[in-house]
Amino acid sequence: MSISIKNGLGYRDGVAFPFVKSPNHGGALKPRFIVIHDTASGLKDDGDISWLTNPAAKVSAHVVVSRQGKITQLVPFNVVAWHAGQSQWKGLKFMNSYAVGIEIDNPGKLQKVSEGVYKNDICTIDTNKDPSLKVEYAKTTAHGAGYWLHYSPEQIAAVTDLCFALAQTFKIEDIITHWMISPGRKIDTNPLYPLDQLKASALPYHPVGLLSAPEGGERHDTDEAGEEQVDLEPHSDVRDESATAPGKLKAFIKSKLTAASGLFGGLSITSFLGVLQDWKVIVALGTFILIGLALWIWLEKE
Predict the structure, then answer these.
(1) Per the database record, which ranges form the N-acetylmuramoyl-L-alanine amidase domain (predicted)?
(2) In whole angstroms, how far apart are CA 293 and each of 108, 184, 197, 251, 286?
(3) pLDDT by residue (tens digit) across 73-123?
(4) Fewer C-beta neighbours within 10 Å, C or N terminus of the chain?
């Protein structure tokens, strides 16, 4: 199966995705991220599509992916859809303005009623009647404890192919979930979704991860990753440069250069070449190196 993107519309094997236009959208979009969601609904996509195209709902997504792997598009990929709500990621707020939204047909958290039967306020899943449905217990800090329906192989394949096409078309930086950008407010996708597998298959290189979310869903953003804390104990006859203003600045520059070298040193050749395909990264890296060298030379003269 081959998916391509042309003028904001998706095509599978040269045939346009089924398109049901949603009135719930904003202006132009240049996506940097992909956010994947659960529909928190039954196992048929028609109800999801009806709701996401209802003006009264004031919500939408770019596509809905059914259990059978069918992709229905509701909003062009170069137009803002209303899927993220109150959200933030890497210092950006309201991710609708930065991300494509993919809704995957899945009921969300379930409770066990009896052996093989699970339900929530929306639907009932009976694995006795349909053995192809797999439900598993899982507990995480972000999701809490519960029973969760596995995504179908067709869904995983369709989402992977779509994300790959989007990453190639729009130079997508990362693929994230709703719970990652709205921790404490949202719990989709469910904890069974193979997010790492999706990233490895769909992205041209793995995100460095300085601003990634841990399992608990709480972000701990920092620009000090990889920096080691070193205590200097100079001899009495040695001038402690770290105590002076130039010395502190020199130590700071050295620590940043060390952190940067550790960061890029941990990348594989393929990942490093993938990073360098982005001219913004090249310009930023070159500027950082030139400024660092200039300050270093000035401090040596001092």
Answers:
(1) 22-192
(2) 53, 44, 39, 13, 11
(3) 999 999 999 999 999 999 999 999 999 999 999 999 999 999 999 999 999
(4) N
At 116 the three-state DSSP class reads coil
More confident residue, 288 or 43: 43
CA pair distance 87, 99, nearest whole angstrom: 11
pLDDT in tens, 138-167: 999 999 999 999 999 999 999 999 999 999
Which residues are CB-neighbours of 230 under 8 A, at least 6 positions away? none
* CA gap 53, 22 in Å, rounded: 4
Q: For residues 249 and 110, give the distance between their C-alpha atoms in angstroms, rounded to a whole number.
A: 55
User: Are the beta carbons of 228 and 154 closer than 8 angstroms?
Assistant: no
Burial of 258 (0-12, 13-18, 19+ CB in 10 A): middle
Give SS3 for 269: helix
Among 224, 175, 230, which Cα is nearest to 201's? 175
Q: Which domains does the chain have, with CATH numbers?
A: 3-107+152-202 (3.40.80.10)
Which one-letter amino acid corresponds to residue 115? E
CA distances (Å), origin 41, targets 48, 108, 182, 201: 7, 8, 19, 27
51-59: long-range contacts (C-beta < 8 A, 24 or more apart)? 52/22, 52/24, 52/103, 53/20, 53/21, 53/22, 53/23, 53/24, 54/24, 55/23, 55/24, 57/24, 58/24, 58/82, 59/24, 59/83
How many angstroms separate the CA atoms of 59 and 84, rounded?
9
Helix, coil or strand: residue 196: helix
